[in-house]
Structure formats: structure tokens, C-alpha cells
Write a structure and sequence with these properties.
The complex is a heterodimer of chains A (about 375) and B (about 350). With about 375 residues, chain A is α+β, with helices and mostly antiparallel strands. Chain A is built from 14 helices and eight strands. Chain A is globular and about 70 Å long. By secondary structure, chain B is of the alpha+beta class. Chain B has nine helices and ten strands. In chain B, a hairpin with a 7-residue loop joins strand 6 (about 160) and strand 7 (about 170-175). Chain B is globular, with a radius of gyration of 20 Å. The chains are: A alpha+beta (about 375), B alpha+beta (about 350).
Chain lengths: ~375, ~350
């Protein structure tokens, strides 16, 4: 057991730290400002061009073939520098890598990883949230193409996306989980209408609704076999639940650091409960950092987690909401009187973490039945 | 970075769990079975676990913080009623001071259980508490202040034993007891020694709490799958499932911080090792309280009776939480460190 950097890891850390010092774009605190989301693509490209993105992915597709633990170093240094977190698209890479043919991988992974192509994920629908398999968007074969009709929601960055990894029903005559297929759908075409959603913290550039009305996709853009859509979706959401895949550790550590700085600057200005909230947020953020170290180390010999991702997702949710609560506590009345208070936005945004990527209640169902092996009702 | 167990560590983990499971109590009456407790104590001694932090001849411990905490975790999981962390922590202090360890000795604490008892004269001016002492042992170390450094002194510890924990003893040293300096102490203990020593204490108590959580959760999940109401196992109800799922998450998070703290003991400078220990202890103490309370709740009425094992875990968690300071104490120290006075 060793939490220290190996020589190669230490070299990487030094190199990345030096690069960050010169290239930190200084974006506003993530998740609280439209500017952050608007400039995320730039940050992705900068990281990629400098050789600091997609560390554990195959070099063949633009990655670096490094062990997964290098992502821990990336996140720690990003947090220490107060830089924006790395773009979270590891779960899309995992989904395409696991289920796509060689041709699909060669065609789509390089652009996804380099950031040349922007992607979104079209899974949820207004009537298919936790019960994702009941989705009603259809893909109907028409010659060499499929025709898409339906309504997707909670589609992150849909308005800037070039591609959508879309889950649609291709066979209405089989049980609901078996009739789904996945496609890489080009987003810039007639038949697709974007309707942005405004989040409770005011952000308008993250979530969208997408209406498909006769949009078309080439049959060769199907990812996996017909009917493999559900399994692909489960691959993606299980990775979407892993903080190591998302890089959120850096976001939480950055917020905690800012809260600590604020409290330290005014020794008599904060009550004991506010100080304790910040200390507890530090403990929680440290827990997640170390938990990710452990999880990514476990992957060094290729162990995949499966339902374990649900544990990590709940831990991550508790951390985000503890940090959000601490921000609100430290801000005090300011959060109530100032519409633009950053702490207010951090707090409000944190409430989504127990819903996105599968609600906390769904995660607990998974843990209870698939990890604890408790009987089902 | 590779936080996995080495093959030797994995083997120790397996062996320690097996021994603790075999010889630890499985029912509440088992705790009074002195034949079993003697066998357990002999097995722990024969395994060499009480000497893990003894001097290897060059001033270094025979085994690392990681190995020591692997044993603590295994003993906690089985609520093993045997002295371990107490004697090991005493040996750690003796090694740092360069004195032969008095076998069976523990370190006496102040009444808050947060720090070792410091005396300034030939007798105790405030009471001391000895935690996790073998039944046949009778003396403990206290610190004798010598300018900014410390000598080790020995103080008699009285029977009887008591305390919340039914598996580890709490005994007392009363005011007025003589503190006899140990002969031939090679080095005076510095503040750095005490910081490094408390890092081990925080790591050991955190590891014990992780074990307790794992043990009580295993018992409780098994019970929830068996116990029927409305004609079905209570573990099939979401309300119960969600409590247990949360408990499982708390266990996993606790393990991650506790492993790091155990590694930090020998691999980070003392202050950083103690900071890692504080994070671990704050998290594990809060988590263990919730997990053990969940276990009592899921056991229902029987969970509130003396005969049900879950209170044995809860009681052990209460002592391990307080020993070296509970979550509130750690948070106060973290605040002082990171936010200023």
C-alpha cells in the first residue's frame, strides 16, 4: 500500500503543475456561472493539446495509455491551482469503447477525446427518468437510415453538441429493456429542436431539452447491436456514477479551499457552527479524494466495479451537498439578499447531485439488492 | 500510487480476520467465557501482534502502521475482547523513548481520553484512565514533564475494570499514586514523538471503527434477510434497504480515510500523519455512530435487548470514538489548524 507518487507520477505532477501555473484560464467557480460552461470547450482543447487529457485512454484514440491513478494527480493539481475541473466525458468514452465496433471507435473516439467534436447524451425523457427503460423515443428503419422521433430532457450541453449518443426504441414488440438501441446522431440537422432549461441556480447553458421530429441517422451510426442499447446505457451510467471518472474531486476541493480562505481572513467573523461546517466539508472532500485513490488503484489490475459505482455516487453526492451546505452556511445572510452570491449558486447546484446520473434512492436500491444481496419485495 | 494491499498485507488481513472470527465472541454470554478469552489472548500474543510496534533493533518498528491497523480492523470486526491497541501504543512510546517495554503496559490518558496523562511531580495530581489493558496487567505509562520534553514513568492501575465497552477494559489510576520514572530511558520524548504517536492512535482507533462497522453491518444484513414481518423478510422493504445501503456507503468511505491514515503513520512527517489521522477519525467516528445505530434500529425490539450482539458493537464504537478524541474534538483541531484560532 503506497499513497505516494512513483517517480513517473512525480514527474507528471511536476510537469502538469508547471503547465497549470501558466495556463490556468481562471474561469469562475464551476457550475455557478454561464461563462464557465461557455468556455469549457476551450479548456478541454487546452488540456488535450498540452497532453493532459484522456490520460488512461488508448493512445490510438488520442489518450496516453497511462494507469488510471494519473487522473488522481490531475485532479489534485487542478484543485490546488483552483483551475476548472477536467471535462467529464469519461463515461461516454467507456460506453463507446465497450459497445462500439472497431469502425465506430476509430470514427468517433478521437474527436470526442480531443474535443474537436462536442457530444451530449440523450437518455432521459419527460416520462422516463428513473424508469429509463420505458423511454418512448423511436428510431424507425428507413433504407440505410433510421428516423428519430421523440423528446429528450436533462441533455447536458445539447445546444453546443455536434453529436448525441441517443437511446431510442427500435423494437416496440419486445420487453422494454430489450427493444432499445444506441446511435451517434448528428445534432446539426433539420428535425432537431433545442429548448434550453434554466436551472434553479440560474444557469442556462448546461441542461437542455431536445425534440427530435423526423431527424435522421445513418444505420452505420448504431453503437453496438440492435437491442444492445440498454446494456450500453448501463455501462455509461455506471461510469457516470464514479467520481474518479468525473473529476469532481477537484471542484469540491477548490470550493473548500475558498471557504477556508474566507474564514481565515476574518478570525472573529464566523460562528462556531460555520467553522465546523467548513472543517467537516474538508473532511468530506478529503474522504472522496482518498476514496478515488483507492478505487482507481483497484483498477490497476483491471477490476471493474459494476454496482460499486452506486456506493461511490452516494459518497460523492454527500460530499457535494456537504460542501454546498458549508458554502451556504459561511455566506449566511448574503446568500439570502444577494442574487449573484456564488455560495447560493453552489448550494442550489448541489441539490441536483442526488438526482443526476440516477437518484440517490435508485443507488440505494442497487446497493441493497446487488451488493448487500437483500431480498427484493 | 497504489493503495492496494501488498500480497503480505492481504495475507495478514485474511489471517487476522480468520483468527478474530474463530476466537471472538459470537453471543453476548460468550463474553463471560474466560476459557475462550484466554485462548484469544494467547493467540494474539503468539501471532506476535502485540509486538508489531516494538523496536526492530535499529529504532524502527517491527511492522508498519498499515499492518498494525489491519489487525485492529480485524479485531474490531469480531468485537474481539482482547487487549491490542492499548499495549501496542505503549510499545510505540517505549520504542520512541528507547526503553525496554514493560509487557502488558498501556498508556494512561487524561479523563477526556484525548491525550496521554502528563505529571509534573512524583505523584499523580489528576486521575488517569487506562484503556484496553489485559486483565493480568497492572501498570501504565504516564509522561513526566522535563522542560519541553518528557520522561516515561510507571503508575499502578487499580482494578476493577468498567466502562461502556464490554470487550475492552477501562481502568483507573487515582490521584496520589506514585509516578516512578523508568530506568535507563535512552531519549527524552519530544512533542514530535507525541504527534507521531497520536497519529498511530488515531489510525488504530479509526481502523477499529471500520472493523466494528463491517462486523455489525454483516450481522444486520443477515438478520434483515431472515427476519420476517408481513410474511416477507424485513430486508425486502425499501425503507430498511435504504438504511443499510447508506450504512454500507459510510463503511466504504471510512475504509478509504482509515487506510490512508494507517499508511501516513510511517510515511508522512508527524504533523501531516496526525492531520491524516484527524480526518480519518472525524469521518469514522461519525460514520460508526450512524452505522451502529442503524444496526440497532434494523434489529427492532430485540436490538434493544442485552442479549442481542449489536449493542456490543455500538459500545465498542463509543469507546474507540472517544479514545484520542471523537469527531467533535477532531473537527475543533482541524479548525484550529486550517482556519486559525
Amino acid at each position: 500500500m503506497d499513497f505516494r507518487d512513483s517517480p513517473a507520477e512525480a514527474e507528471f505532477r511536476t510537469r502538469f503543475r508547471a503547465w497549470l501555473a501558466a495556463n490556468n484560464p481562471g474561469l469562475p467557480t464551476s457550475s455557478t456561472d454561464d461563462e464557465y460552461w461557455a468556455r469549457q470547450a476551450e479548456w478541454h482543447t487546452a488540456l488535450y493539446d498540452a497532453g493532459f487529457f484522456g490520460l488512461s485512454w488508448p493512445a490510438r484514440y488520442g489518450g496516453h495509455d497511462l494507469p488510471t491513478v494519473f487522473d488522481v494527480i490531475l485532479d489534485e493539481e487542478i484543485a490546488a491551482a483552483g483551475a476548472p475541473p477536467r471535462p467529464s466525458l469519461g463515461y461516454l468514452v467507456q460506453g463507446i469503447s465497450t459497445h462500439g465496433s472497431e469502425a465506430i471507435k476509430d470514427r468517433f473516439l478521437p474527436g470526442l477525446i480531443s474535443g474537436t467534436d462536442r457530444w451530449c447524451q440523450g437518455f432521459s425523457e419527460p416520462d422516463a427518468g428513473s424508469d429509463l427503460a420505458s423511454l418512448r423515443t423511436t428510431a424507425t428503419r428507413d433504407g440505410d437510415e433510421y428516423v428519430i422521433n421523440g423528446h429528450k430532457i436533462w441533455t447536458s450541453y445539447s445546444d453546443v453538441a455536434d453529436w448525441c449518443i441517443l437511446l431510442a426504441r427500435t423494437d416496440p414488440d419486445v420487453p422494454k429493456h430489450k427493444g432499445l438501441s444506441a446511435f451517434a446522431v448528428p445534432m446539426r440537422q433539420p428535425g432537431i429542436e433545442q429548448r434550453p432549461l434554466r436551472m434553479i441556480n440560474g444557469i442556462t447553458t448546461e441542461f437542455g431539452q431536445v425534440l427530435f421530429d423526423g431527424a435522421r441517422v445513418a444505420a452505420e451510426n448504431m453503437i453496438g447491436e440492435p437491442g444492445e442499447g440498454w446494456r450500453l446505457a448501463m455501462t455509461i451510467v455506471s461510469h457516470e456514477r464514479e467520481p474518479g471518472e468525473l473529476g469532481y474531486v477537484a471542484r469540491y476541493a477548490k470550493t473548500v479551499k475558498e471557504l477556508e480562505r474566507e474564514v481565515r481572513a476574518d478570525p472573529s467573523g464566523f460562528r462556531n457552527d460555520q467553522r465546523e461546517a467548513v472543517a467537516w466539508a474538508h473532511v468530506q472532500a478529503e474522504m472522496l479524494r482518498l476514496h478515488v485513490c483507492r478505487r482507481l488503484s483497484e483498477r490497476l489490475d483491471g477490476i471493474e466495479h459494476g454496482p460499486g459505482g452506486s456506493i461511490d455516487k452516494l459518497l460523492m453526492t454527500w460530499v457535494e451537498q456537504t460542501v454546498g451546505g458549508a458554502a451556504l452556511s459561511v455566506s449566511g445572510a448574503r446568500a439570502a439578499v444577494d442574487t449573484d452570491d456564488v455560495a447560493l449558486k453552489i448550494y442550489l447546484y448541489s441539490r441536483a447531485q442526488s438526482v443526476m446520473g440516477g437518484t440517490s434512492q435508485i443507488q440505494k436500491n442497487i446497493i441493497a439488492t446487488r451488493i448487500l444481496d437483500l431480498p427484493t419485495a | 500510487m497504489d493503495t492496494r494491499d501488498s500480497p503480505e498485507q492481504a495475507e495478514l488481513r485474511r489471517a487476522a480476520r480468520q483468527l478474530a472470527r474463530q476466537l471472538g465472541p459470537t453471543t453476548v454470554p460468550d463474553i463471560d467465557d474466560s476459557t475462550r478469552t484466554k485462548r484469544l489472548a494467547a493467540a494474539v500474543r503468539d501471532a506476535g501482534w502485540l509486538e508489531l510496534r516494538d523496536d526492530d533493533g535499529d529504532g524502527a518498528p517491527l511492522a508498519g502502521g498499515v499492518e498494525t491497523c489491519i489487525v485492529a480492523d480485524a479485531l474490531g470486526a469480531a468485537v474481539a475482547d482482547v487487549a491490542f491497541a492499548g499495549p501496542v501504543l505503549a510499545a510505540e512510546l517505549a520504542r520512541r523513548a528507547g526503553v525496554p517495554n514493560v509487557e502488558g503496559s498501556v498508556v494512561a490518558f487524561s479523563e477526556t481520553l484525548c491525550e496521554p496523562l502528563v505529571v509534573t511531580g512524583p505523584a499523580l495530581s489528576s486521575p488517569g484512565v487506562a484503556v484496553d489493558m489485559a486483565p493480568d496487567a497492572h501498570s501504565a505509562y504516564v509522561l513526566l514533564a522535563d522542560d519541553d520534553e518528557y520522561r516515561l514513568a510507571s503508575v499502578a492501575i487499580d482494578p476493577p475494570a468498567g466502562g461502556a465497552d464490554l470487550t475492552r477494559s477501562v481502568r483507573h489510576a487515582v490521584v496520589g499514586h506514585a509516578a516512578t520514572p523508568l530506568p535507563s530511558q535512552a531519549r527524552l520524548l519530544t512533542d514530535d514523538d507525541l504527534v507521531g504517536w497520536s497519529a498511530l492512535g488515531l489510525a488504530l482507533t479509526s481502523a477499529d471503527l471500520v472493523g466494528v462497522m463491517r462486523g455489525v453491518l454483516d450481522v444486520t444484513v443477515e438478520y434483515a434477510a431472515e427476519r420476517k414481518q408481513y410474511g416477507v423478510p424485513v430486508g425486502s422493504f425499501q425503507a430498511v434497504q435504504h438504511l443499510l445501503a447508506e450504512a454500507r456507503c459510510l463503511l466504504e468511505g471510512s475504509l478509504s480515510v482509515a487506510l490512508h491514515a494507517s499508511w501516513a503513520v510511517d510515511n508522512l512527517p508527524p504533523a501531516e500523519a496526525r492531520a491524516a489521522g484527524r480526518v480519518a477519525k472525524a469521518y469514522c467516528a461519525r460514520a460508526a455512530r450512524t452505522v451502529c445505530e442503524t444496526a440497532v434500529q434494523v434489529h427492532g425490539g430485540i436490538g434493544n435487548t442485552w442479549e442481542c450482539m449489536v449493542h456490543v458493537y455500538l459500545r465498542r464504537a463509543l469507546l474507540s470514538s472517544q479514545w484520542f478524541g471523537d469527531d467533535g474534538e477532531q473537527l475543533r483541531e482541524i479548525e484550529r489548524e486550517r482556519l486559525g484560532a
